[in-house]
Hints:
By secondary structure, the protein is of the alpha/beta class. The chain has helices at residues 11-33, 50-59, 71-80, 119-129, 151-159, 175-184, 204-211, 218-222, 226-239; strands at residues 40-44, 63-68, 87-91, 104-110, 130-141, 188-201, 248-260. The chain has one domain (11-260): Vaccinia Virus protein VP39 (Rossmann fold, 3-Layer(aba) Sandwich), CATH 3.40.50.150. The protein is built from 9 helices and 7 strands; from the N terminus they run αβαβαββαβααβαααβ. It has a 7-stranded mixed β-sheet, sandwiched between helices. Helix 5 crosses helix 9 (226-239).
Amino acid sequence: MTEPAIRFDDGAAYEAFMGKWSQLVGDTFLDWLALPVGLRWIDVGCGNGAFTERLVQRCAVADVLGIDPSDAQLAFATRRLAADRSVRFELGDAMALPCADGTFDAAVMALVIFFVPDPAKAVAEMARVVRPGGSVSAYAWDMLGAGFPFAAMHEEMTALGSPPLGPPSIDAARLDTMQALWRGAGLVQIETREISVQRTFADFDSFWEIARSGPRILPKVAGLSRDKVELLKERLRARLVPDAAGRITYRALANAVKGHAPER
């Protein structure tokens, strides 16, 4: 039986669950890219515009096109950046970008590559739509290295016999796989790095409500008995030790890659 697809169709829920995490990584990632201002960007898999907003705030862009397969996410992103005329959003597929060759100076994919059924095709598409010498980059959670922001939740659910859904291309977030994908797309000057971030939640209940809201987790938690839900919370409490004020601080790890289209 084919595993159900993971869909992100609620921009507000995504903001609390993952948007804030994406921006935490995105700040360090953009510093690392160190690209000049005034560029034309494409944000592939832009979702609710969390990273797109960071691009606009920090990079003095000439323009940005956000592409995503979810109408609902794009509606949220459009509202989020309605006041900025340099940004536009369009429904589209990462593996078949609706853009001409060489349209952009930079293509980026934030927390998306492991959700793409054919990552090599998506990277090739990003390489196609940037100009010669243009930047192609991405970051993604180190899923196989327990770097996901809610890895503890996943591990305890798995221990209880109810593992969350997995992304279809989980291996694509590995640093060595990223390097291979970028080389395979003909990109040059390839570099990779790890980015460690942390987020603090007001208390355990705040962590729990946000962690359980993810589209990979919510249906699985809903299917647990009340006793199992309480056991899951008990096991998580034992792992997530609060500070003196009751706050929970959680660390996550992302892998990042950057390269350039060859000059002609």
